[in-house]
Amino acid sequence: MQTPRTTPSRLAKRTAYDTETIYSILDEGLFCTVSYVLNGQPMAIPTAYARHEDRLYIHGSVGSHFIRSIENGASVCISVMLADGLVLAKSAFSHSVNYRSVVVMAQAEKVTDESECLHALTLITDHLIPGRWADLRATTDSELRKTTVLAFSLAEASAKVRTGGPNDDPGDVDLPTWAGVIPLETSWGTPIAATYNIAELPSYLG
Amino acid sequence: MQTPRTTPSRLAKRTAYDTETIYSILDEGLFCTVSYVLNGQPMAIPTAYARHEDRLYIHGSVGSHFIRSIENGASVCISVMLADGLVLAKSAFSHSVNYRSVVVMAQAEKVTDESECLHALTLITDHLIPGRWADLRATTDSELRKTTVLAFSLAEASAKVRTGGPNDDPGDVDLPTWAGVIPLETSWGTPIAATYNIAELPSYLG
Hints:
The structure is a homodimer. Chain A is an alpha+beta fold. In chain A, the strands form 2 sheets. In chain A, strands 1, 2, 3, 6, 7, 10 and 11 form a 7-stranded antiparallel sheet that branches. The longest helix of chain A is centred in the middle third of the chain and has 15 residues. Chain A is globular, with a radius of gyration of 20 Å. The interface between A and B is large, with 92 and 92 residues.
């Protein structure tokens, strides 16, 4: 949703407020950075997350200073950035980055309903490793009591996207410098079994 | 350097303050998230950067709201996270992430010396694409006037690192669930030349 604090001063043409764009970036990203204010100072923590409908969930230890600092409704700025490629132009000035990013302005809501907590933990686990939750033993009450789940509304989220090749100045186009895009790719490596693993690699990891 | 605001409340054993660890993470990462406070609200922007000795540099348009918000010495929290792998345990609770992250608490210093500005732009360009700067035409005075370079001291930086396999509870070790690490890998894809490119791919991109 476009609000004064989600309206950029620069390159507004790169900004999107449609949920399809915002959700697709959040669903593809694995980690976000949660920024908050503590005693007037900016603080930031990278963490895992998951989206469900118009809410984003994170979790942490009930004793975590970070979690305790924001769980009572603090304002946060959550950012996710997918770097897709480096854009090489013929001048340093025209170099750029192809990226898809989302910024969410929201207040933390502590999830107190046990079934919503469990659902959020399921979502976070399966967001990182689709199919994992069904393969795990049940979470215990003790584990749940040690875990805080926080929810954030996506009502005030915006996306920023750059795609395509370089845009050189007309006067630079004929320079004999290579211009184009170097894609950045993220992939899964070969799984490394734990020393005490006794199972075959499951199909959802293959 | 360890100060009250770089001392974590959780998992202190994962925290490092040595410059070798901090610098190696900053030198491997490509993008950081700069968090700052605007009218009491947390804000965050992903951007490129480079490290030189004990300073970190970013740049932006002189007209950027972000740059103008912090250039007069605002406190920032700069975070860089390298995600190395997902750590799969036999319980959801014991799942983890292998990562290397750095958090820098600092005040923005606007670089006014023209040669330091140019040097910082060289560093940022060559940090993303080693060898690129030497292949580019000279930056013009007009381009320099449109660009603000900010420097940040690394005196108050800390690193947090997790490596290795899962640590399951003793009671879970014999469960028939696959346990281990799924590495996350980032790589460069095949370069895509611009429509107006007339150059061979240079060796530093090969």
